[in-house]
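Before anything else, study the sequence and C-alpha cells given here and see whether the fold suits the sequence. Record follows:
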Amino acid sequence: MPLGKFAIGNQVEHLLGSIALARALRRCLVLPDVSDVQRTFSNNQWIPFETLFNASHLDEHICTIDMSSFVRLAIDEGRWEASKRVAYFGRGFDALTEDWYTAHRIRFTSYHEEGVATLAAIAYRLRYGIDTFEVEPATKAELSPERLPVIAAGGSPDGIPVQLHAAKLQYFLRWQQWIVDESRAFSKDDALTRPYLGVHVRNAGDWEHACKVNGITHGADYCTASHPVPQNECMPTTASIANEVRLLAGYFKLKAVFVAVQKSHANLAFGTELLDSLRKQLGKDVTVLSPSFNVPWVDLNILGAADVFLGNCGSTFSAYVHRQRTHTEKGQTNLSRSFFSGQVQSQLAAKRYLPVNPRAVGRDEV
C-alpha cells in the first residue's frame, strides 16, 4: 500500500499488484493500513485493513497477517533484524523525497517506537504476462526469505495502473458487514429505488491541475485508449454529465440516481450545481440522491451495486468500481453496464455493454 498522500483508489491498485507479488514469491502479505485522506484530508490518518475489508476472502488466495500481529512478531519478538529492514520502491522512485522516508517511518512508529531505520530504493525487475506474474530468477534470489525475511514495499512492483492479471484479484476484496449495513440503511432511508444509476464525479483543485497540466494517464487504460485522457472525459462539465445521465435514465428506465462527489470545501459549489442540474433535467420521475456523509467506502459499495454505473475516466476511484462490477466471479471476467463521462453516446450506439451478471459481487448488498 502506498505511503504518501494517496486515496483508496490508488492504494487498492498498489494492493492488487502486491497481492500478485506475494503469491508469486509464496510469501504472506502483511495487510496494510488504509489512508483516510479522503475523509480527513490528512496524510497521517490510517485505518486498519480489517476494519474495512473482510480478510477471510483474501485468505482463500494467499497467506495474510494483520499489521499489529506482524509488528508483534517481527519487531517485538525480534524476527525482523534491524540490519535487514529495507524498504523497496517500484520503478520511478529511485530518487525518493524526504516525505516518503518520513511517511514510511510514521507507519511503523504508530505500532512500534523503533520504526524503520534503514531504507533503500531498489527497482523491481519483474515480467508481466496477460494472465501470469513472474519474477526474474535474479530478483527472486535477491528477495529470498533467507536474505530478506520481510519485503517492505512502498507500493506494488510496477506501480499503477494495475495489470490485468492483478486486476482480477479484486474478486477477493470484500467489504466488512458494517459497510454493507450502512449502504442498506442509506438506500432504505433515502428511497434509493431500483433500478438506479450510480455516478462518480472526480472534481477538485488537484484533479483539475492533473487533467489540464500534467495529463491523466495512470488510471485510464480501463476506459480509453487515449493518453492522456481527453479533457471532456477527464473533467466533464455539469451540463455534459447531466445530459449523459438523462440519456442513461431514459435508455434503462431508471428510477433513481446516486451521485458520489468528492467531499471537500473547495468542491461544494460544483456538487450543488451538479445536483441542481440533474434534478432539472430528470424532473420528478427520477429521484436524485447524494450522501451527506463522507464515507468513501460506503460510496464505493453503493456504486458497485448499481444497476448502471457512470464513472469518471482516469479516476482510480471509478476504476475500483469498474473492477468490482467486472470481476465478479473467481477467475472470470464479466462485462457490466458501466459507462464513462464523455463516452455515453458512443457506448450506447455501439452497445458496448452487457446486462449485469445477476450473481455479481455486491448486487445483493444494497
The chain has two domains: 8-171, 176-350.
